[in-house]
Amino acid sequence: MDENKLGSHWDEDDFIKEADRLWEAELASDTLPNDNRQKFPCVRCGGSGTYHGVRLHQKESKCFTCKGKGYFLTSQHDRDKAKKRREIKTAEKQAVLGH
Ligand SMILES: [Zn+2]
User: Fold this and answer.
1) For residue 96, how far is its CA from the centre of ligand 1 (angstroms)?
2) Nearest in space to 15 (alpha carbons), one of 65, 85, 76, 69
3) d(CA 13, ligand 1 centre) in Å
4) What's the CA-to-centroid distance between 75 and ligand 1, angstroms?
5) Between the CA of residue 21 and those of 14, 16, 26, 27, 61, what are the distances in Å?
6) How would you write the pLDDT of the chain (99 residues) with one tens digit per residue?
7) Which of 11, 34, 61, 90 is 20 to 30 A from residue 84's alpha carbon, by CA?
8) Minimal CA–CA distance to 63: which of 79, 49, 75, 76?
9) DSSP 62
10) 52: CA distance to ligand 1 center in Å?
11) Quick one: which of 34, 96, 35, 44 has its CA closest to 68?
């Protein structure tokens, strides 16, 4: 039953945290030379990195979602999925605390 032991180090929370960590690292890093990773254009700004909608109390027009990069290295779908799971987890925790 060694397989169970190996798997026990990671629960779903860890995977979500890891995804967040990678995401933060991705936002912090500049585009690398010879960067041939797949890129997903930002849906919010259409890949321009600039937010064109109405913005109050903001000097910069950098897109919030991609932080001005205009693209992601993870797909919108994957990020939505991670976000949903995080929301479910948070709701579950709150439900437990409410008892
Ligand atoms: Zn954007």
Assistant:
1) 36
2) 85
3) 27
4) 13
5) 10, 9, 8, 10, 25
6) 455 555 556 677 777 777 777 777 776 666 555 667 788 888 888 889 987 666 566 566 888 888 888 888 888 788 888 899 999 999 999 998 876
7) 61
8) 49
9) B
10) 10
11) 44
pLDDT at 27: 67
Cα 79 to ligand 1 centre (Å): 14
Residue 66: predicted pLDDT:
86
H helix or E strand, kind and range, residue 77: helix 76-97
Give the torsion sign (CA, 29, 31, 35, 41): positive
Strands 71-72 and 40-41, bridge-based pairing: antiparallel
